[in-house]
Every structure is written in structure tokens, then in C-alpha cells.
Amino acid sequence: MTETNPSPAIQLDDIHLTLSSDAGEVNILRGIDLNIKRGETVGLVGPSGSGKTSMLMVVAGLERPTSGRVEVASHDITDLNEDKLALFRREHTGIVFQNFHLVPTMTALENVALPLEFAGRSHAFDAARDQLDAVGLGHRLEHYPGQLSGGEQQRVALARAFVTEPTILLADEPTGNLDGHTGEAVMELLFDLHARKNTTLLLITHAPALAQRCSRVLSMADGLIASDAPAA
Amino acid sequence: MTQGPSTISSLTLAWRIARREMRTGLKGFRVFLACLALGVASIAAVGSLSEAVTAGLMADARYLLGGDVSVRMQHLPIEGEQLAYLKANADQVSSVIEMKAMAQTDTARTLVELKGVDSSYPLVGSVETSPPGALQAQIAKQDGVWGAVVDLGLLTKLGLALGDLVRVGEATFQIRAEITKEPDRVASILNFGPRFMVSTQALPDTGLVQLGSQIRYYERVSLLNHQSAPQFMDQLQGQFPEAGWRVRGPDNAAPGLQRFIRRLTLFLTFAGLTALLVGGIGVLGAVRSYLASKTSTIATLKCLGAPGGLVFQAYLLQVLALTLVGIAIGLSLGAALPFLGIELVRDHLPVAPQSGLYPFALFKAAVFGVLVSATFALWPLAQARETPAANLFRTNVVPVTSWPKRSYVLAVLLGVVVLGALVVFWAEERRFAYWFVIVSVCTVLLLRLGALAVMRAAKHAPRPNTAMWRLVLANLYRPGTSTPGVVLALGVGLSVLVAVALIQGNIARQVQESIPDQAPAFFFIDIQPHQVADFESQVLSVPGAGELTRMPSMRGRIVQINGVPVDQVDINPSVRWAVNGDRALTYAAVPSPGTEFTDGTWWAADYRGPPQISFDATVADGFGVGVGDTLTINVLGRDIKATIGSLRKIDWRTLRFDFAIIFAPGTLEGAPQTHIAAIKAPSSAEADIERTVAQHFANISTIRVRDALEAASRIIQGIGAAVTGTASLTVLAGIIVLAGTIAAAKSGRVYDSIVFKVLGATRRQIMGAFLLEFSLLGLFTGVVGTAVGTLISWAVIQQIMAMSWVFLPLEAAVTVLSAVAFTTLAGFFGTWRALGEKASRHLRNE
After folding, report:
1. Inter-chain contact B21–A57, Cβ cutoff 8 Å?
2. Which of B672, B623, B667, B626 is nearest to B647 (CA)?
3. Inter-chain CB proximity A102 and B23 less than 8 Å
4. pLDDT tens digits along B131-157
5. Is the Cβ pair A114, B301 closer than 8 Å?
6. What is the torsion angle, in degrees rounded to the nearest 10, for the CA atoms of residue B142, residue B146, residue B147 and residue B151?
7. Mean per-residue pLDDT for B754-763?
8. Which of A63, A82, A105 sits opposite B308 (nearest CB)?
9. Comparison of pLDDT for B340 and B327, the residue scoring more
10. By CB distance 3.0 to 4.6 Å, which of B95, B104, B234, B476 could disulfide with B118?
11. Which of residues 826-845 of B touch A (CB under 8 A)?
């Protein structure tokens, strides 16, 4: 039986995010409505301060919206508590950061195995080994982040993000700290993994070329989605 | 959603993460380990040392007692029916007589502790002499001359050698040997003169054994196999309830010594606890600093799906693992230090400690170590648990500074309560323990609130015109400021330093100021009633002799307060001395000149009514009594219930001739008594006065005030050395904590100073701001530290050591300013090094 009208991978309904500071309240997101289908690749562009990262954090369950509803992978995560959000993330999301954020005291293998260990999966290290092979780092399993180049670190981060076979992959400027050649290689890897696992990809980038590789490009400005169109 | 691993496997996972995190080794935990180890070592060492000394005391109890049971009478010998009973009901009985006397040659004289022993002495142990020999042979009469064995100190003082002759009273003795070991000697901690041991049969020849003389008669008893000391003592009490003697068993063989050891242990224990408390501050700072460096990692783990609880467990396990390491180091040091310490001070201790491992002392230290570590680490761990995963999306990752969840706050409070309860439960003196806990908690709270006050004041201060002052103020309250940590560490450290300085200053003051200008030159004791007139005439005829004061004297014990036995009365510890042993009593028709009354009135000169006394006002306050209340005093076996008619203010430091208890006429005149006198004289007349008394009154003992005070000073100086030694551990802990706090703030300073440099600030501007910041913090905490340290020193000097206390502003100021200067310099060097760091390393992205 085929699935009709499959639920979206990401659905945001009238999302508002207001943060308080000493300087007063700041409206970060001012009514976001978004629907991303499973398997889509979505590029998120916009000037600094437009709310791109905040929207990503809302989708990842790392920031609770002031109002609105967040549904990710058919789960309403709007009102989940911290621990339930952590459980949700380990099952359904993978995140890749601009600054890699590998744990410096753990080897590449251990870094990749971590989310599987948190999920209590057996054979976590076998799966981690396979994933590192897939990103071409099968020969660097026991190396620490400090012993890896920037590109290698980001590949480890990619492996870590994909090892749980997440429903959604969120990437915040994954090539921002890499030179052009290395960044290109990392992006190739990212899209290749996406294709193999049909993961829904939401990607923040300042590189137009990278955004154009996505099937859809969202442009944000002043906390709102200014445009939403297929990639050219 | 799947729930993830079970609790057990969650702990296993947490431990796996903890182990990986500890791969960098212990480098980042030097301060943590040092603070914890030092605190645990202090408590373990103090506990082990006190148990070693107590064990030595218990092991030597029979030796100190001179038998299984010791019976003592003052003024009168134990004889007749009482002596017969002892001999009939014990295995062996040995008679010993002790008194003060003057030993003199033709050219010199000195006070000695005269001891007459019978043929059975000693019942326990043996007297060792040089040259070795049988004691009884050495002190027997040979060629018409009695023998004596003496302390080396006597030979030195009088310039004598073995075989020389020396007079005591009317008798001449030949010094036949030097005493190298006297098994029952350490019963009294304050022995003014060297030991002079003779046969009891020789004492009548001295003419010193007279009615009313200050003589202590002992019958030492060794029991039959089937008897126990408590049983025998009960039987004795039942057989002779009105005997008026003091009976001691092994449990209180040397009560004065036991009290001294207990007091010293109390002080040392609290010094050790202070070191541990300071260490706890160090643990807090070290854990906070470590977790701040792990903020990114914690956020990463949370992004990857680790629940807050798992993160908390992982870092808690790290802290616990390090706690075990720190405790192991501390216990090793704490167990080893007493072995070393005992060997260094063995000759100076009044009893031979028993070196060994004392598991309970080590156990207590370990328990305190775990509790302190867990309690102080819990807060920053709980804060770290709340690190938002979203932090990773922000470029400047800052640690969480808000309060943790309520359950963790309650857990910290529980830890504090349990710690405080254990301190009190395990303390010898609960009252001081309560104060210690209260002062500790209040100090930490005060410093914490003080830090908040400083930050608030800086935040709301008017905006300065100069950039440097703006920088200084901003540094005091900005997010991630080191103000709370520095104020707490510096405040606790300063409190300890000021307390130690004031304690040492007060002890030194006791020593240096102990001879007031108007102190007598001599006290004379054992003046027989029939000698009074002649004595006064002879002494006052010496050129230069000044004011002579003389009063009758006898000994008695306070046995009841308002009809209640003294051991059932809650007596202030500072005046407990008044019921510990006999007190000197006198009677007088008129008060001596200069008497200061605080309540009541003196009796009429011809008073002949019911027994009435004039009492020391301070002691009365400590007893909780006043005019109209009664004291029951046992004098030579007779209980005398007397009403307090007046209270007098007595300042013992002036060495004014005075008595805590003065009876009205009509009660004590008929009791056996001697007279004591005091004379003021310039130092130029002292030798003549002493010679005159020695030549005419062989039975009168002369106590040179200076000698007595020097003996007391030596003991006080010894106490001072113990205070310094123990306090130095606490001070060391304080320095480590302070250094750790400043080092922890260094990373923030490195970044700040580099950015300032990039923006064009000169090194002078940056250094100036940091120096000002540290100076401001130092001065503020100096005020708080002085207040707390002053309170602590008062408690130790007045409540524990029962000495008078004064505030020494110079000592306090010097201590505070030195510490502030040290802190400022430490901050200076830390910042100077930071300014030398390469900018590129810190400005480049990861």
C-alpha cells in the first residue's frame, strides 16, 4: 500500500519568536508558516539577523517559539520538555554546525557513535565505523579532532549527523569555515548522503551556488519568509 | 519516540563519557585535587594525632596514676581506718607525698617539687636514673645523710654535681643520681620546679611537714586480680562517703592533661575543618572553571540527544572520581604526617603518643571530604546541566549562571545541613561546633551577598568619564565576571589570615605583657601561723622591700552550686577551671585596698554569722549565680555551704594578690592553714629578700614570679607554635584557592586583553584597569575578612583557650593590606602574562 498525502517533514504554523534582553524585547520570528515535504532539500538564505538560525533552532527543538506550532517528522514538538526534545533529536534530527563542534576528548569513531550510544543502540561503534568509511575517513577512526584538518572534522560531523539515519538534517553554514575546495567536497558528500538516505535537508548558507543546489530556496528578511521558490 | 537506555545502562553510558572526558588527564584539576587533599589531610592528621596522644595517655594511665587507683588528700595524710581499709582491700599500697619546697646551697636556692616516696614506690613502671641503680638504695640514709635523686634542671640551676649536698628545709641531702625517667611525673602540666625525690622517712627531718602546709598526700593502690578500678572506687566511696579525698582511676588519670589535650584537639580539629571549608571553596571554583571550559561540549552532547540528566551524571562521575583521588592523596598524607610529627615533637609532649593508623580518624576525614566535594560541586554541575544546546549556534558561548533546578538547590542545602550536623555530632564541645558551623555558613553567605552588592553598585554607579574607570566598573559586573569567585576565595582566605594573625598576636601578648609593672617579685607559701610576725619583720627589714601582702590560705573544692552537684550544672567553659580541682581559699574581715565590687556588700569586720563568701564576679557569671546564691565548698572533708554576699571584679593579669573565694570571718579560722604572702620589690632587692627568707625560714617556699611566668610562657609559646603549624595548613589552602581563582579568570582576561590591544588600548591602560579592579575587590573583602577573622579569633582565644582577648588593629591591618597586595600582584602577573599571549591564536576561528 502506498502512502497518500504523506505528512510533511517540517511544518511550522504561525511561528513567532520574541526574545527579551536588557535592551527590551526583540521579535526574531514574526509569523513563519512553512511546509517542507520529506526528502526535500531547502536552502535558507537571507541577510544576518533575518532569523535564519533562529528558525533552524525552532525546527531542531533548540528554541521554543513564543507562539505557533511546530511539527517535525509527524511529531508536535511545540510543548515538549527538554529531555523529550533531546530524545526527539536523537531519533529524528541530525545537525551540522559551521564550527563542527566535535567533542575534543573523543576520537572520530567515538564522536560518530555518540548519538547511537545515547539512543541505546547496540553495535553503535560498528555503525559509526561504517559511516566514517562512507565519508572517506575509515583510516582516521582513532584520531582526535585536534589531529584532523577542518575538512576532515566537518566530514566527521557529517558522519555523526547521518549515523542515526535522521528524518531531517539541519546544517548551519556547514562550509563557512572551509576553503572553497574543501567546502565543495563537503557539500558533495552532504548531498550524496542525502540522496542515499532521502533525508530532508534544511541548509543555511550565504553561498548562492550552494543554495541553488537545493530543490527549493527560502529567503528570509526581518523575521519573515520573504520568498519561497524552487531553485533556479 | 524510544525512551533510550535504562537507568543502569544510563550510568554506564555516563561513565563512558566521563572516562573519555578525563583523557586530558588531571592537569586541569590540580587546584581541585590540592584543595581537597589538603583539607582531608588536615582533618586526618589532626584526628590521627589526637587519637595517638589519647591512646598514649590511656596506655600510660596506670603509669601516670602510679597504680590502678590513686587516692589523694590535701593538707592531711590518709591514715587510721582509711589507710587500713586500703591495705586490707588491695594488693599493694604505696604512699607518696608531694609539696613545693626550697632547695638551697650556701650560695643559691631554687624552688623544687619535693616528692617523698615509700619502699613500694613505684607500683607501676620504674624510676630510671643516671647512674642507674636501685631507687631505694639511692634515697636511703647512708653515713647519716639522706639521699636524693633529682632532675637535671636542679643541678644546672644550683650549679651542682652528683655527690654534692643540698639543704631542703632543715635536712641535708646528698644528690646521688639524676632522674631520667619518672613514670608518674606527667600528671601536672605546670611544674614550676625540678623534681627532688627523697624517701618519705626523710621528710620529718626537713621540718616541712606541718599542719596546714600545702602538702598532697597520695596512696596509690594496685588492685587484686578480681577487682576493677570502678568497683574499688565505688566501694571506697560507699565506705568513706565523707572522706574528702579525691579518688582517680585510669579513666581520669591526669585530668588536667586530658583537658589540655582535649582543648588542643578541639582547636586543631576546627583548624582542619577550616582548611577543608576553604578547600571546598577551591573545589567550587575548580569545578566551575572546568565546566565553563566544557560548555561547548555539553551543548554538543545535548544537540546529539543527551538528556540533561545524562550530562549531569557524566560530569558528576568525573567529579566523584577526582574526589576519590583527592581523598586518597589526603588520607595518605594525613595518615603519614602524624608519624613524622610525633617523632619531631615526641620530646615536647607530656605523654608518649602511640604512633599508628587510626581508621576512625581517617574515616571521618574521608566522609568530610566526600561531603564537601559533593556539596560544593553540586551547584555548578546543576547549572551546567541547564546549558542550552542552542548555545552552539551562538559565537560566544557563555556558561549558565542562573540558579539550577529546585531539586538541586535542595540537595545542596541538604549537603550543607548534613555537613554541619556531622561537624557538631563529632565535636568534643558541641557549643563551639554550633558556632563554627553558623559562622562558616554566614561567612559564605555574607561574601556571596557582598559580591552581589559590589556588582550591583558597579552596575548602577554613575558612568565615569575615563575609559579606564569604565573598564574597571564593567569588569566588576559583566557576564562571566570573576567578582563572585574572587570575593568568596579572597574573603575566606582573609578571614583565616586575620584570625590566625589575631590569635598569634593575642598569644604573644599574653607572653610579653604577662609581667605587669605592679606585679609582685615573689610569692611565699607555707608560712606557718606562728611564723607570721617574724616573717613580716624579717622581709620588711630588707632594704628595698616594698609592699607586703599576706593572707591565710587553705585549699577546698567547689562541690555544689545552689545545692546542685557541679557536674550537673551547665557551667560556661571559660570558668570551668574553678571547679576542676582545688581552689585556694582565705578569709578576711576587711577587703584589701583597691577591691572593686560589682554587686552586694562586704560583711562587717566583726561578722560571726552563717558562712558567707565574697566571690569572683566573672566566675559567678559563668556559674549563673549571684548575690544570695550558695556554693558548697569541701574543705578537708567537710562540706561548707556558704551564701554569696558580694561579687568582686578580679583582673588576674595584674597578678594582684587576690582570691576567687574569700570567706567571712567565723568559718575557717579553726581549719589547718598556712599563710601566703606577696612582696613587691625592685630587682636589686630580690636576691637579698630570697636569701633572708631561706636563711630564717627553711619551710617557706619562694616562688619567683618571673620564673613562674616564664614557665607559663613556654607553654603558651608551645601552644602558639601548634596554632601556627596548624593554621599554616589552612593558610596554604587559602593561598591555593586564591591562586586557582585568579588562574581560572585568566582565560577570560587573555581574550579581553587581546581584543583591547587590537582596539588600540595601551598595555598601561589594560594593566591599570585590572590592577584597580583587584584592588577594589581586595579592599572590600578586606573589611569583611577582618570582621569575620576578628570574630573567629575572639572565639578561639576566649572560648577555647580561656585567655583574655583584645582586638589588635595593627596586626589586622597589616594582614589585610599584605593579602590585598598579594592578590593584586597575583592578578597583575596573571594579566601581564595574558598580555604577552599571541593575538592571532585567539582571534582565529576554530
Report:
1. no
2. B626
3. no
4. 999 999 999 999 999 999 999 889 988
5. yes
6. -170
7. 68
8. A82
9. B327
10. B95
11. 845
* B225 in A contact zone (CB under 8 Å): no
Q: Decide: A87 and A118 in contact? Cβ < 8 Å.
A: no
Q: Is residue B236 a contact partner of residue B247, using CB atoms and an 8 Å limit?
A: yes
Could you tell me how far CA B667 lies from the centroid of its own chain?
Answer: 40
CA-closest candidate to residue B792, choices B444, B443, B423 = B443
Contact A103, B301 (CB under 8 A): yes
* DSSP per-residue string spanning A164-215: T--SEEEEESTTTTS-HHHHHHHHHHHHHHHHHHT-EEEEE-S-HHHHHHSS
* Alpha-carbon distances of B293 from B135, B286, B390, B399, B834, rounded to whole Å: 74, 11, 17, 8, 17
DSSP state of B172: E
Can you spell out the DSSP letters for B630-693?
Answer: EEEEEETTEEEEEEEEEEEE--GGGT-S--SEEEPTTSSTTS--EEEEEE---HHHHHHHHHHH
**Interchain proximity B388–A62, CB inside 8 Å:** yes
| Higher pLDDT pick, B714 / B650 | B650
pLDDT greater than 90 at residue B197 = yes
Q: Closest Cα to residue B846, out of A22, A12, A163, A153?
A: A153
Copy the grid coordinates of residue B422. Answer: 556531622
Under an 8 A CB cutoff, do B4 and A87 touch? yes
Distance CA B280, CA B36 (A): 7
Q: Mean pLDDT score of chain B, rounded to an integer?
A: 84
| Residue in chain A lying closest to B22 (CA) | A105
If you write DSSP's letter for every residue of B430-491 in order, what string do you get?
HHHHHHHHHHHHHHHHHHHHHHHHHHHHHHHSPPPSSHHHHHHHHHHHSTT-SHHHHHHHHH
Q: Which three cell numbers stand for residue B252?
A: 581520669
| Burial category of B773 from C-beta neighbours within 10 Å (exposed 0-12, middle 13-18, buried 19 and up) | buried
Tell me which residue of B282, B301, B284 sits closest to B18, measured CA to CA: B301
Pairing of strands B165-168, B171-181: antiparallel
Under 8 Å CB-to-CB from B134, ≥6 apart: which residues?
Answer: none
Instruction: Determine the pLDDT at residue B819.
Output: 75
B831 vs B772: CA distance, rounded Å: 12
Closest-approach residue (CA) in chain A for B386: A82
DSSP annotation string for B518-542: T--SEEEEEE-GGGHHHHHHHHHTS
The two most distant CA atoms of chain B are separated, in Å, by 109
Candidates B1, B7, B302, B303: best to mutate against A (most CBs of A within 10 A) is: B303
Under the banding of pLDDT at 50, 70 and 90, the label for residue B846 is: very low
Residue-by-residue DSSP string for B544-596:
T---EEEEEEEEEEEEEETTEEGGGS---GGGGGGGSS-EEEEE-SSPPTT-E
- How many helices and strands in chain B, by DSSP H and E? 24, 21
DSSP line for B46-75: HHHHHHHHHHHHHHTHHHHHTSSEEEEEES
Q: ipTM of this model?
A: 0.83
Strand partners, B522: B679, B704
Q: In angstroms, rounded to a whole number, what is the distance separating the alpha carbons of residues B382 and B644?
A: 62
Q: Where are the beta strands (DSSP E) in B125-170?
A: 128-130, 146-150, 165-168
B290-295 CB contacts, 8 Å cutoff, 24+ apart: B290/B28, B290/B29, B290/B32, B291/B315, B291/B380, B291/B381, B291/B383, B291/B384, B291/B399, B292/B399, B292/B480, B292/B744, B293/B28, B293/B747, B294/B21, B294/B384, B295/B384, B295/B387, B295/B391, B295/B397, B295/B398, B295/B399
Q: Is B802 helix (H, G, I), strand (E, B) or coil?
A: coil
Residue A11: Cβ within 10 Å count: 19
* Cβ within 8 Å of B, A 68-97: 75, 82-84, 86-91, 95, 97
